[in-house]
Amino acid sequence: MSSDVLILGIESSCDETAAAVVKNGRQVLSNVISSQIDIHTLYGGVVPEIASRKHTERIVQVVDKALEEAGVGLKDLDAIAVTYGPGLVGPLLVGVSMAKALHYVSKVPLIGVNHIEGHICANYIAHEDLEPPFLCLVVSGGHTHLLETLDYGEYRILGMTQDDAAGEAFDKVARAVGLGYPGGPKIDKAAKEGDPDAIDFPRGKVRDSEYDFSFSGLKSAVLNYLNQMEMKNEPVSVPDVAASFQKSVVDVLTAHTVTAAKSLNAPAIALAGGVASNSALRQSMQEAADEMGIRFYCPPPVLCTDNAAMIAGAGYFAYRRGEFADLTLNAVPGLRLKHI
Ligand code: KG4
Ligand code: ZN
What we know:
Blueprint: E1 6-11, E2 16-23, E3 27-35, H1 37-41, H2 48-70, E4 79-85, H3 89-106, E5 110-114, H4 115-126, E6 134-139, E7 144-151, E8 154-160, H5 166-176, H6 183-191, H7 216-231, H8 238-264, E9 268-272, H9 279-292, E10 295-297, H10 301-304, H11 309-321
Parallel strand pairs: 1-4, 4-5, 6-9, 9-10
Antiparallel strand pairs: 1-2, 2-3, 6-7, 7-8
This protein binds 5'-O-[(R)-(carboxyoxy)(hydroxy)phosphoryl]adenosine and zinc ion (ZN).
């Protein structure tokens, strides 16, 4: 009998319908992602009800394709891992219902995965040699966490955002300058043509906290700048706004991570979440890690933004700990990361 552990991952917490098969938490056999970006672009952001419907329409095909591409059947799986939170309740319910139905008919064990933990575990897939402990900055559309990964599945949260998530700030600023949805990649691209020192936007500070983040002040500063330029009838350089805004976000994210790395003597830094695909952030973190003489890990962009391989990966470590779910598993939109 093979000792390999094959896990089917299912992800539907926001606007990507995704399924993947991963071996031993690190080797991707298939990674199918059906994005709804084109539809939500028409509305300038994710419309939860439309997202739920699209997940319902696509989930069966996406799961079938993931199994087919991996060359496995349901009976070959050791577990089915599904995101059950945090995220949008309707979209989450589609993935959870699909996973429960598969579990019910096949008797393959079921595992509920926290989406944030999935993002962290994308690093194990991308980097075979990566083992805890390491410092991890999780930056996505809904979350901004600076945390220590002490062991597999064991986290200590150092800081979080007090208001907007980093990705949310990217999306809101992109909308304000007319770049549209999804904002992050569009700001990233526009910033390459702009001057990051053109406008002196504030670096968000949280009183009495070295590690917490705040991005709402920065967002307001960008909106004020745009209003002032309009009132003065002066032209706005979108690339300069994009580059200056991005620099402000990247500076704060890097500075907090460096402070934590130094004070905890961290052996390595990892990035995770959709914003981890930002080219300026990756470069800034790499340079900071090089300067400190510590290792830097970051998944390729396809494993940074939402995908199911990371969910199957996180599911593997839960499988090893014997953490299984049953048919009472439900969507938990406000699920928090379990931490010490
Ligand atoms: O992790 P993710 O796919 O979904 C959530 O769990 O939220 O992250 C999506 C977020 C969006 O806010 C998107 O604008 C941002 O990640 N994002 C980026 C880039 N690519 C995606 N932000 C900055 N630069 C990028 N290249
Ligand atoms: Zn995500």
